[in-house]
What we know:
Blueprint: E1 6-11, E2 15-20, E3 25-29, E4 44-49, E5 58-63, E6 67-72, E7 77-81, E8 94-95
Antiparallel strand pairs: 1-2, 2-3, 3-4, 5-6, 6-7, 7-8
Amino acid sequence: MQSGKMVMVACGWRHTISVSSSGRLYTYGWSKYCQLGHGNFEDHLVPHKLEALSDKFIRETASGWGHTMALTSDGILYGWGWNKVAGFCSLNFTFK
């Protein structure tokens, strides 16, 4: 993994999200609810770059029990993972 220095880390229940100094997002851990954002339920023991947001600069990230959020430099908030009400599991769920 050639990600550079990690400058931000957020932790969910059993997953971790980190942001590199170049603004790239990496996720790893348990993915029962797609909270890693790789489009599947596959667990990752080492950090994997989130390709779906690879063209975005991540400014902030946060995580909860089974979900992940990322705020880009252009002000768009992306969310994915478990949501009892809406059931979002893909990166196309966005807030402005």
